């Protein structure tokens, strides 16, 4: 086990900062203990690693295990949001100002790991969150490997080669259709090139990701928000986000992507942060339709 301690320079909320890395309840690669400490299993450039983080008296203490332990501790400040600049954000709406005031400890995480954020984002394409989270759990349990260290029942996601070798029947059992499975396989085969996007600016990184067929603006933004800590990678093509943003900022429903981007114009360069803050409020448009039913591909 190796250790490191990081002291945030300002009020800090570890749970809010890292929570976007969890892929639903029961994520085999991310766990929060009752005391608020966080366990995270990752496949780093140096191999599998497990990170345990506790926040106490204004400091974050990290313990790491496995071949990737050194890499996880070296990149710890970026993961915790040290490279983020929340002072660059200026609220332009009363609701956003209040959310910003209430969540001063929020930072944008930067994992530096593209495939780790890309693959679950592909799984979330055009399906319910529950379907995507279930697929992620099943695939990690079947094709991942046990996380190093004392974290019980946690799994490290498969290597790029292992993702590319998953047989069609295992994708089917996990409820993943052929289009999403093929996109993940193509991404896995181009993993080395895609990982380079972690060091690029948003525009270049997005183009690099979208060069893979099946990866569009939605998936690219969802990935870069986590891998690169992008404050401006706003998610377009989402079913719900435009409606939430539109209702929160104007009180009106029926907002589409174009209208959402226009509303977010005052936050150019910080649009993702603005969306994060809005989503942390309880303001939501009234529900006018039942939730989408979960499609079970295994029955097909």
TrEMBL record:
A GO cellular component annotation in the UniProt record: protein-DNA complex
GO biological process: one example: DNA alkylation repair
One Gene Ontology MF term: DNA-7-methylguanine glycosylase activity
Gene3D superfamilies registered for this protein in UniProt: Hypothetical protein, domain 2
Highest taxon listed in the record's lineage: Bacteria
Keywords recorded for this protein, A-Z: DNA damage, DNA repair
Name this polypeptide is given: DNA-3-methyladenine glycosylase 2 family protein
Protein source organism: Streptomyces klenkii
């Amino acid at each position: 086990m190796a250790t490191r301690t990081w002291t945030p320079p300002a009020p800090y909320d570890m749970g809010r900062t890292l929570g976007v890395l969890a892929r639903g309840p029961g994520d085999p690669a991310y766990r929060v203990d009752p005391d608020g400490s966080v366990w995270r299993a990752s496949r780093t450039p140096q191999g599998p690693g497990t990170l345990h983080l506790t926040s106490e008296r204004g400091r974050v203490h990290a313990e790491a295990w496995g071949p990737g332990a050194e890499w996880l501790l070296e990149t710890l400040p970026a993961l915790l949001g040290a490279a983020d600049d929340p002072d660059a954000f200026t609220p332009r709406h009363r609701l956003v100002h209040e959310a910003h005031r209430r969540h001063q400890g929020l930072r944008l995480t930067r994992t530096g790991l593209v495939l780790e954020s890309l693959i679950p984002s592909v799984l979330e394409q055009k399906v319910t969150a529950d379907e995507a989270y279930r697929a992620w759990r099943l695939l990690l349990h079947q094709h991942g490997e046990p996380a190093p260290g004392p974290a019980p029942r946690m799994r490290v996601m498969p290597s790029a080669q292992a993702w590319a070798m998953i047989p069609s029947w295992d994708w089917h059992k996990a409820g993943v259709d052929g289009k999403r499975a093929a996109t993940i396989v193509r991404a896995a085969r181009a993993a080395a090139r895609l990982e380079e996007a972690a060091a690029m600016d948003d525009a270049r990184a997005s183009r690099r990701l979208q060069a893979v067929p099946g990866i569009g603006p939605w998936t690219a933004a969802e990935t870069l928000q986590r891998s690169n800590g992008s404050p401006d990678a706003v998610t377009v093509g989402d079913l719900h986000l435009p409606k939430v943003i539109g209702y929160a900022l104007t009180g009106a429903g029926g907002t589409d992507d174009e209208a959402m981007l226009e509303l977010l114009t005052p936050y150019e360069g910080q649009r993702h942060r603005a969306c994060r803050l809005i989503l942390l409020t309880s303001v939501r448009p009234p529900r006018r339709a039942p939730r989408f039913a979960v499609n079970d591909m295994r029955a097909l």
